[in-house]
Amino acid sequence: MKALLFLLVSFFLCCSPFYSQSSFKLISDNPVIADFVVTDELGNVYLMTGSSIERINALGKGVYRASELQWGEFHDVDVTDPLRPFVHFPASGKVVFFDNTLSVQGSPIDLFEAGFDNVEWMCGSRGDGYWLWDGRNSELVRVDRSFKKRFSTGNLSMLLNHEIHPIGMTERGSYLYLLCEDSTLHVFDMFGTWKKRIFVERVKNWMADADNLYLFHSDGSLEVIDTRTWLSERMNLPLVGSAYCFQAGRLYVLSDGRLRTYDFVETIRN
Known about the structure:
eight-stranded mixed beta sheet; 24 strands; 270 residues; mainly beta; four-stranded antiparallel beta sheet; 50% strand
């Protein structure tokens, strides 16, 4: 009986999310004008409104701004390549590339002219290309740097027998992630092969890096999923905000017109 109890407890601990008792040390608190925040792997911080992007380097200096974004609404700035961030404007079909000072590089790419007339979402890829979500055909399309089509998945809603309506997509590590409006996160490999789905209830923000998924829940907690084992843990955030980002042990929280930055220190695991 004791052996059976031990096995059951061990199984529960290995397969269930758990909370870690951790501390966040506030290191900066600054007024900002922003609705959303992302960071790149170099530690640069991007603050966005519906019509502007501001970039601050890892030392909190070197502020650059792009405010004449006349191509329509955009979802966010893609920082897969921190030296070549870009913004996709779905309604106009434009893709605008920047350098690391947010200066526009060259002429915008016109997806309509390239033969892609219904791209609802787009993200960068480490594999020297881009992923496009074709909403009309419900498929992922892989293109190269010249926006030449390399392959597509076919109609995923039919293949998976499940309607897919993305509200976000990103590639990090070995996976491409598609977050859908029904709170389902679909996981694909680098060849567009579907791997699994994860139900992510009440997620306010989300992001990924090479090894982890970060899900910021509306109850003020952060769920971290190890994408090597798919085990997860949760921790309470120091502040409930309107937008979050976590990068290299540093937490960024937008709340009431201020950007608060915390260093993360893990103390005890339960």
